[in-house]
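Continuing the batch. This is chain 6 of the set; chains 1 through 5 are on the previous pages. Same settings as before, nothing changed between runs. Recording input and output for traceability.
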Amino acid sequence: MENRGGKTMRLVGVEVLIAPLRLREPTKSAGRTHHDRTTLFLRVVTDAGMGWGECAAYPGARWPDPTVSAVEPEVVDHVLGRLVAACPNGELPAAGRVASVLRAASVAEQAVIAAVEMAVLDAELQMTGQSTASWLDVSRAQVGSAAMVGIPERRDVDALVDRVGAAIEAGARRIRLKIEPGWERGPLEAVRDRFGDVALAADANGSFAPDRTPMLAGLDDLELVCLEQPFPPVDLAAHRVLAETMATPIALDESLWSPARVDEALAERAFRVACLKPGRLGGVVATLAAASACANAGAGCFVGGLFDSGLSRSLNAAIAGRAEFTLDGDLGDPDGYLESNPFAFLDTAGGLTTLSQLPGIGAVPRTELIGDDWGRRWIPGEP
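Output for chain 6:
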């Protein structure tokens, strides 16, 4: 990852924007249904241009992820105050140093710091004329994408099969079904029976109790790519026991809230696949550290999503191009699930996303969608 080539970039200020985004249709995972995707964006303005960042906080978030109201304004102000203080003579730290300079004290701070890092990176790469893929030393031009299929209304198996079929027809290279107690073997069998050898995973969002280990172990015959987050996030020991019981690889998602936590879970032998979400972990640098730890331990990983706009998803696609990421990530076009997507996503066809070669993150703002109904605050740079 290159630096700024001797160029400097001074902070003028940061605009905090709250975007009232919505999902096109309700999406159900274990224990909750998502409708609202109100999103916090940051626009970092410098003397060399500006960059955009997106915070992973979202309404209805389940622990450990923060809600938008939990980060705005208090956590945002704390983090941005530290950013301003870390700019001697107004000069911004390089994007690769942002996370270490700001030093997150919580997962909520990590989510905001990831947005700051993204915005600084966007501005920095536009100034130096470099793409994110180039900055990350990614050699491949395209990455594959998986599709998440939620729990249908009234647990309608026919509706589930139809949705999976549509995702496969659209090019999804892996299907991840949401499951919960009472909705596990039946839907997985229905999809396996209908679509044969499709790459199929199950995601429980931590909804099962450890005493369900025998039932979950009985899913081995379905030849799943992985069983994701069956137990609550804090319980690494229960995941280790299940991992020792099943042939199916156990994946962790919500349990992995920092690079240090990834190291802890690897030491516990609690998983063989990691769902790594840059917005939760604290940004690009933190995600690469976590991915490197997984690769060194022989564990697979993929880039996860949080109903991102085209901005975060474009950055995530570039990250997914790194060799450490062994499975297709959550990289579907946000136009498919957001009523209004304020940042155009990358070119996608047949389940493959072409990485941007444009300077910056590569997601072009749709200025007509960045509306007057967005909440806005301005945080000046140097006093």
